[in-house]
Amino acid sequence: MGREYKNHIMIDNKIHFGKPCITGTRISVENVLELIEEGISFENIIKDYYPDLQIEDIKACVQYA
Fold this sequence. Notes:
42% of the residues lie in helices and 6% in strands. The chain has 65 residues and is mainly α. It has one domain: Arc Repressor Mutant, subunit A, CATH 1.10.10. The relative contact order is 0.22.
């Protein structure tokens, strides 16, 4: 799988106290993973929660974890 997530995940001490977030957003990896754990599909995460995300962003969260 490699480290393809690196283009999608950033850590910045000024955003969410340095928690990993989707690059260019304030959406934390943790929040996305919680939705996945609840059984919400990638498509519904985008449609119902985070319309600014792409499927690749969500996959990067899973790879990061």
